[in-house]
Write a structure and sequence with these properties.
The complex is a heterodimer of chains A (107) and B (144).
Chain A lengths: L1 H23 E2 L1 E2 H19 L5 H14 L3 H9 L1 H26 L1
Antiparallel strand pairs in A: 1-2
Helix pairs in contact in A: 1-2, 1-3, 2-3, 2-5, 4-5
Chain B lengths: L11 H24 L9 H16 L4 H5 L3 H13 L3 H12 L3 H23 L4 H9 L5
Classes of the chains: A mainly alpha (107), B mainly alpha (144).
Chain lengths: 107, 144
């Protein structure tokens, strides 16, 4: 049952990430930056709101986990070369962490 | 990556394949997190291992001619399965939680250690691929 909720959440989150990347990853991976920051914000928010059990499986592990990606972030950061790769890292990691803290504070 | 600035949505069959792959990847990640649960205040080894292994596998896709020439496999396996398997939201939340509970050194080691390890494995995988093979997978949107 829990596995099904995780699958369902990710079956929504992952294609949304794909569409965001398709639309906004033009020369710079803005779509991937966006999903990672937004997904981190939402997970901070859900955590603070006390979402647990089935809610965590569906929204946290499934949706937020499927929506965000570390693999694409790492590959894009490396393949874009030093300058843009570093920009990708700086626009993703500190901003996503800040967004997560903001979501937690608002929740 | 979409270098042509194409607007409009990706093909529906690929969107559905990414949904399927993402569901599979997320369930594998969840199974591992269940088998090796996080201990409060300690280094989140499970998510670390998930993100490093997923980054390595994504960077290896261009090394296989069969995979990279296939129309469906890069979006299914790269953007779908590995994108759903790895997570940046859990990484952010685990780091936030460690910082909030005063485990600053562990938080920083996790934050920077994951980044460093993922970049190292991607660099190693890139030794087995060429610029053209990586560009091909990128054009097929297998790395979103």
């Amino acid at each position: 049952m829990t596995a099904l909720l995780v699958a369902l959440g990710a079956a929504v989150g992952a294609p949304l990430r794909y569409v965001a990347g398709h639309l906004f990853d033009v020369r710079f991976p803005w779509g991937t930056v966006l999903v990672n920051v937004l997904g981190s914000f939402l997970l901070g928010l859900f955590t603070a709101l006390g979402v647990n059990g089935d809610g965590t499986a569906l929204l946290g592990v499934g949706f937020c986990g499927g929506f965000t990606t570390y693999s694409a972030f790492a590959v894009q950061s490396f393949d874009h070369g030093r300058r843009r790769g570093l920009a990708n890292v700086m626009l993703t990691i500190p901003v996503a962490l800040g967004a997560c803290a903001l979501g937690f504070a608002l929740g | 990556m979409n270098r042509d600035g194409r607007r409009g949505l990706p093909p529906l069959d690929l969107v559905l394949l990414v949904a399927l792959g993402g569901a599979v990847g997320a369930v594998v990640r969840w199974s591992l997190e269940e088998a090796f649960p996080l201990t409060s205040g300690s280094f989140p080894w499970t998510t670390f291992a998930v993100n490093v292994s997923g980054s390595l596998l994504l960077a290896l896709i261009p090394a296989s001619p069969w995979l990279r020439h296939h129309r469906l496999m890069p979006p299914l396996l790269g953007t779908g399965v590995l994108g759903g398997y790895t997570t940046l939201s859990t990484y952010s939340e685990e780091t936030r939680s460690l910082l909030a509970s005063g485990h600053v050194a562990v938080a920083l080691a996790y934050l920077l250690g994951t980044l460093a390890a993922c970049l190292v494995v991607v660099a190693l995988a890139d030794l087995l691929t060429t610029r053209d093979s990586r560009a091909e997978v990128e054009a097929e949107e297998g790395d979103l």
